[in-house]
Amino acid sequence: MIWCEEQDWLYEVFDLTTDPGEFGAHADFVRIWAAKLAPGKLPLKSEIGFEDFRGWWGWITLGEVLDPEGGAMRYRLWGSHVAELTRLEMTGKTMQQQYGERIDATNYNEFDLAFIQRLVREPAIGRQSGPVDWDIPDYQRMSTLRLPLSRDGSRVDYLVSAVIAT
């Protein structure tokens, strides 16, 4: 379901039980996550290992939710290809540490931030896609698929994301 279309970006929200085949190039990433999904429970972070995502290495981020209302996350992992694409190394950092404490300095636009808040508040699969609007000659578009992970199965404590750039 389309959640928002803004600034040439499409933000979509999907039910947690959506068939992985619906996600095109992200299907295998969703399949790995969905295998850990139990009825009425979110997948536990402790049940998913880095090695599970072997084909996605370098294209994954793992954000630990620090403030469910404000959308602040500490990136426990910022893949090497994502770092090259964004020209940022965020592993171990928050956007606020990178850009300052102002809300407009998080490097998320207001729609990105609201989207993350929505996925944390109401657990769902999220996908955002749009044009790469910075000078990267090899890529024109990117798509990020975000999946919730939990410590206890009931609330979103992490978002694991896979980036595809084309």
Number of strands: 7
Which fold name fills CATH's third level, the topology? Beta-Lactamase
State the assembly state of the protein chains: single chain
CATH architecture: 2-Layer Sandwich
| Biggest beta sheet attributes | 7 strands, antiparallel
Total of helices: 4
The order of strands across the largest sheet is 1-2-5-6-7-3-4
Shape: globular
Instruction: Count structural domains.
Output: 1
SSE string = EEHEEHHHEEE
- At the first level of CATH, the class is Alpha Beta
Helix/strand/pairing category: alpha+beta
In short:
The chain has 166 residues and is α+β, with helices and mostly antiparallel strands. It has helices at 27-34, 80-86, 95-99, 110-121, and strands spanning 2-6, 9-14, 60-67, 72-78, 125-131, 141-149, 158-165.
Tags for this model:
single chain; 166 residues; alpha+beta; Beta-Lactamase; seven-stranded antiparallel sheet; 19% helix; 30% strand
Question: How would you describe this protein?
Answer:
The longest helix has 12 residues, at 110-121. The protein has a single domain (2-165), classed as Beta-Lactamase (2-Layer Sandwich), CATH 3.30.450. It has 166 residues and is an alpha+beta fold. Residues 103-107 have low confidence and may be disordered. A hairpin with a 4-residue loop joins strand 3 (60-67) and strand 4. The protein has four helices and seven strands; from the N terminus they run ββαββαααβββ. A seven-stranded antiparallel sheet has the order 1-2-5-6-7-3-4, sandwiched between helices. The radius of gyration is 15 Å and the shape is globular.
